[in-house]
Amino acid sequence: MLIRAALSVIPRPRPSTLPTGTSTSVLKVDFEHLMGYQQVCGFRKSDVLPVTYPHVLGFDLAMGLMTRPDFPFPVIGLVHVANRIEQRRQLTAADRLAVEVRADDLREHPRGRQFDMVTTVTREGEEVWRETSTYLRREKAGRSERTDDPKTPVPQAIWRVGTEVGPAYARVSGDRNPIHTSQIGARLFGFPRRIAHGMWGKARCLAALEGRLPEALTIEVAFKLPILLPSKVGFSYSRGELAVFNARSGKPHLSGSIRSAGA
């Protein structure tokens, strides 16, 4: 998969549309892998799947689609800008799950083009989990249109995010993009240091709220500035709104909302 991802940057004619069809897999959760994920992201060890865990179950399928010859963009250089997860039922390691991934909704963006990778998980024929990951292909120079950021909230916790987070999350997620695992790789893509995975940040927020959230919920986040490793970040959560920001400057890394099903 890494070789295919690297080869995807070679210039060649590409289609202008997303590939149709889906990639599917039926699986059972590996409990040892689950515990490794829970440890890296800060969850308690349990047979209950964190809400973000199915993302890693579908990651290989998503990468398989994005590295196909008929995909309109090289996978290296895509920016994960937003993520929405809807969970209808709590999942456990004992569940047998069917995972399906498809690409959808190619659209224009001020900086280029965006599309969604949609992952659904069904259990015994019932859809219980759905994720929409939005990716940006930058094709235009200049700054994105920005609105004024809200006032930096008062942190409810300060997290020290060490350099080990990048490689550790890469191992449990399968996302071994060099911007997360290699100092040289990060610099090649314009970062002064390695950066944390956006989905690690989202999972870490949910771990901080473990035991306080309903089983059926929707969590939507936008990824802002990357978390350079190492860093010290602030976390806040109030009335369903969450944020992660630089503890020193207040600049945002992640913002989002959590809503119970039907809210």
Topology:
Blueprint lengths: L1 H6 L15 E6 L2 H11 L11 H5 L1 H8 L12 E9 L8 E14 L2 E12 L2 E13 L18 E5 L3 H9 L4 H4 L1 H6 L9 H11 L8 E7 L7 E8 L2 E6 L5 E9 L3
Antiparallel strand pairs: 1-3, 2-5, 2-7, 3-4, 4-5, 6-8, 7-10, 8-9, 9-10
In short:
This protein is α+β, with helices and mostly antiparallel strands and 263 residues long. The chain contains 8 helices and 10 strands. A hairpin with a 2-residue loop joins strand 8 (231-238) and strand 9.
Characteristics of this structure?
34% strand, 10-stranded antiparallel beta sheet, 8 helices, 263 residues, alpha+beta, globular, single chain, Thiol Ester Dehydrase, Chain A
Number of DSSP helical runs: 8
Query: Mind telling me the CATH superfamily name?
Result: Hotdog Thioesterase
Q: Which structural class matches the secondary elements? A: alpha+beta
Give the CATH class.
Alpha Beta
- Tally of extended strands? 10
Number of domains: 1
Second-tier CATH architecture: Roll
Poorly predicted sequence stretches spanning 5 or more consecutive residues: none
Head-to-tail CA distance between termini:
39 Å
Overall 3D form: globular
Alpha-carbon Rg, integer: 18 Å
| Helix and strand pattern | HEHHHEEEEEHHHHEEEE
Give the overall average pLDDT. 91
- What's the arrangement of strands in the largest beta sheet? 1-3-4-5-2-7-10-9-8-6
Main beta sheet strand tally, sense and closure = 10 strands, antiparallel
The share of residues in helices is 10-25%
Strand content: 25-35%
CATH topology: Thiol Ester Dehydrase, Chain A
